[in-house]
# Entry
Amino acid sequence: MKRRNLIVSIVVVAVVLAVAMWALQSAPRPVDVASVRRGPLVQHFEEEGRTELPRRWLLSAPITGTLQRINLLQGDAVKAGQVLAVIEPARAALLDPANRGRLLAEEQAAKASMQAARQRQAAAQADADLATRDVRRMRVLGASGAVSVAALDEAEAAVAAHGSGRIAGALGPLGASYRPDICPEPEVAAKMYAENVAHMKDRVDFFLIETAASVAQAEGALRAVKGCGKPYWLSVTVMDDDGTRLRSGEGVGDLAQIVADYAPEAVLVNCSRPEAIAAALEIVKGFGRPFGAYA
# Structure
C-alpha cells in the first residue's frame, strides 16, 4: 500500500514538473538567415540647409520701360556680350495739362543749363585768350633773354591745353610805350625788330605789331615782318581825349599809306581808353582791312 502511494506521488510530481516546464517555456520566433561576407558600409542621411552666393550683381537700366521675360534659369552659364534681357520703351503719357506744364519746366531748365554751359565756355575761352597773350609777351621776352626757355614752354603748354588757338609773336614799342619821340627811325627800328622776328618766326603762327604810337613806329615794325613768311597784324594806340589821333599827334588816317604799302592782315587799336576807341575804329574801317580793338 505504501509503495503504491509512493508511485502515485512520484507520478503527480512528475506531471506537475512537466506542466511547469511547459508553461515556462518561450514560444519560438522567426529569424532571417543570411551568409556573412565582406562589403562596403553605406549610410544615408537627410538634413536641411541654406546656400549663399559668393558675389551678388545688381543689374539696372538708365531708361524706363518694361522688361521682357528672361529665358534664363538660375545657375545657367552666360557668355560675354550675350543679351540677358530686353527692355521695351515705356509708352508716352498723354499730354494733359499737368504733363505739359512739367515738360515746359524741364525745357526751361534745359535752356538754363545750356546758357550756364555757354557762360562756362566763354570763361574758358577768356582764360585761353589770356594764356595766348601771356605767350606773346613771353616769346618777346624769351627772344631777348629776359625769361627762361622753361617759362616760354610753360606758356605754350597753356595754349596746347586749350586744344586750339593761334600763337602770336608780339612786337611792342622800342624804348618805351607811348613815347614815339624816342623811337628809332624806321630804318634802324626795322633792323632791331628783325632780330626778334628771326627768333620767333619758327614758333609763332603770326606776328602782332602792337601799341604803335606813330606812323614811323608802325612802319619800322612793318618793314621787319614783311617777307618773313608769316602773317602780321598792326595795332596802334590813340590819344585818350581824341581817338582820331595817334599818341604822336598824327591823325589815324595818316596810317592809310603804310597800310596800303605793307598790307597787314588786320588793323587794330589797343592800349587806349574805351571812350576813344570808337572814333579810331570809324577811321580804321576805311582802310579796307579787317579791324577791331582789344585791351
Q: What stands out?
A: The first helix runs from residue 2 to 24. The helical segments are 2-24, 97-143, 149-162, 186-200, 215-225, 256-262, 274-284.
